[in-house]
Each structure stands twice: as structure tokens, then as C-alpha cells.
Design a protein that fits this description.
single chain, 257 residues, 11 helices, globular
């Protein structure tokens, strides 16, 4: 995004096209396991749940959802026709859904909203029509994916996850309050959280991070890390406000993730 804003416009289109091809290959990995019985590295599909490239969906699902919309914004940048947008939207949404990772679904929902507005709602003469049709279309697509791969339905059942998260966040804030200036150190959250568990107790939840990105930055890097994020967001906001319409359009494929 910064490269675009400082007017290196000739570099951004080839970069986003290359990124889009890589993301599409990444997304195809889930369907290759489901349809071919193996992933793209020729590893047999023996797991009960589809995994992403090089690791399980639990490890990389968040990033798949976050980066998956790059091809959509690239199509918008290149001014492709409506059919291309529809097909790519179906491909991206179905590929993320089939991975069955809630964090990927959440990040996809956040990152795709500006694209849906810019490409479907804003150009419409009657904006109420796409506002009504788009959710129904995406819901129908989700139902089709769930019928093809029923294991996706398990992602809708959180079990005790939500309750455990709500118990974890107050303890995470207590860890932050004890080391509020510079935190407990990057990747040291688990060692700081372990004393809050009973001796030799196995947690049903992954305690290597607090399951909330701002809380993770706060606990591991303290106030210094929080100020760093705020400084970055402020800089991006100032660059965005000073950019012209063409620069903003160029920046979308890289600024949304």
C-alpha cells in the first residue's frame, strides 16, 4: 500500500496479478483434497478435515481468509467483466468455506465487504437490489458447499470455545497489566499464561496466543507495540486521505489484507 501511495504505480499491477495466481493455487488445495483425494504436494487426504498448504487449516486458516480476496480486488483493478467477477467470487468463497476454519470465514467476511460494495452495490441503479440479492446468493453458495462436503457443518458448532475465550481474555488483560510497558516478549504468551492453569492440567484451548490480535500485541509487546500499531494505522490513513482515486484503486488489492 505504501508503494502505491508514493506513486510507484507501475509495480503494483504485476505484483497483484502474481499474488492472485499464488492465492488461487493456495485456494485450490482444499478442492484438490476433496475431489482428488490428495493435496497438491501429492500427500494422501487422510485427515478428517481439509488442510491448507504445508500445514493444517488451524495453522494457516486465518491467513487464507485474509489473503483470499486479493484476486477479487485484482479483477476490480483490471476492470474485468461481470462474469469474471461472479466466477471468481464463487471460487474464492467456496474454496474458503470448504476448509471449514472459522477464522478463515471471519477474515473473508471482513475483507470481502468493500469489494462487494464497489463492484456490485455502487454501480447499481437501484442499490437495494444487490443489497438483497448478494446475501441470498452467498447463502445459497454456502448451502451447496455444505451439501458437497458435510464436514463443514461442524465449524458452525463452537462447543465451549466461546466460553473458554471469554475466560481467557480477562487473564490476558491481567498479564498485560503486569508487563504493560514492553510485554512478556514475542511468542512468550504461553509461558506467561501457564501459571494460571492448575498444575499438569491440559487446556482444551490453544494457549500459545490469546485469540485476539490486539490483545496478543498488548500482552507480548506492551504499550510499545500498541503505539507501533497505532502509528502504522495513522500513517496509512494519512496516505489514503492524500491519495487520488486511481491510487486508492491500485492500493485495494494490497491494503485490504
Amino acid at each position: 500500500a505504501v508503494i502505491v501511495f508514493v506513486r510507484a504505480q507501475h509495480a503494483i499491477k504485476p505484483m497483484t496479478i502474481i499474488l492472485s495466481f499464488l492465492i488461487c493455487i493456495w485456494l485450490f488445495n482444499g478442492w484438490s483434497q476433496l475431489l482428488l483425494g490428495m493435496d497438491m504436494l501429492n500427500r494422501p487426504f487422510s485427515q478428517p478435515k481439509i488442510h491448507s498448504v504445508f500445514a493444517t487449516s488451524q495453522d494457516f486458516g486465518f491467513y487464507v481468509g485474509m489473503l483470499s480476496t486479493i484476486p477479487l480486488y485484482t479483477l476490480y483493478l483490471l476492470g474485468k467483466n461481470r462474469l469474471s467477477h461472479l466466477l471468481m467470487t464463487m471460487w474464492v468463497v467456496s474454496s474458503v468455506l470448504v476448509m471449514g476454519q472459522f477464522s478463515a470465514w471471519m477474515m473473508l467476511c471482513i475483507s470481502i465487504l468493500p469489494y462487494l460494495y464497489l463492484n456490485y452495490v455502487q454501480p447499481a441503479r437501484r442499490r437495494i437490489i444487490p443489497i438483497v440479492i448478494l446475501p441470498l446468493w452467498l447463502l445459497l453458495l454456502a448451502i451447496v458447499v455444505m451439501n458437497i462436503y458435510p464436514s463443514v457443518n461442524a465449524t458452525l458448532y463452537w462447543g465451549q470455545y466461546q466460553q473458554l475465550i471469554w475466560q481467557m481474555w480477562p487473564l490476558s488483560f491481567e498479564i498485560f497489566s503486569q508487563s504493560w510497558l514492553n510485554g512478556v516478549g514475542v511468542a512468550n504468551f504461553q509461558s506467561a499464561f501457564q501459571p494460571y492453569l492448575a498444575p499438569n492440567a491440559a487446556s482444551p484451548l490453544d494457549i500459545s496466543y490469546p485469540h485476539q490480535i490486539i490483545m496478543q500485541v498488548a500482552t507480548e509487546t506492551g504499550l510499545i507495540g500498541i503505539l507501533g500499531i497505532l502509528l502504522l494505522w495513522t500513517a496509512l490513513f494519512r496516505l489514503w486521505s492524500q491519495a487520488n482515486a486511481d491510487q486508492r484503486k491500485l492500493a485495494l488489492p494490497v491494503i485490504m489484507p
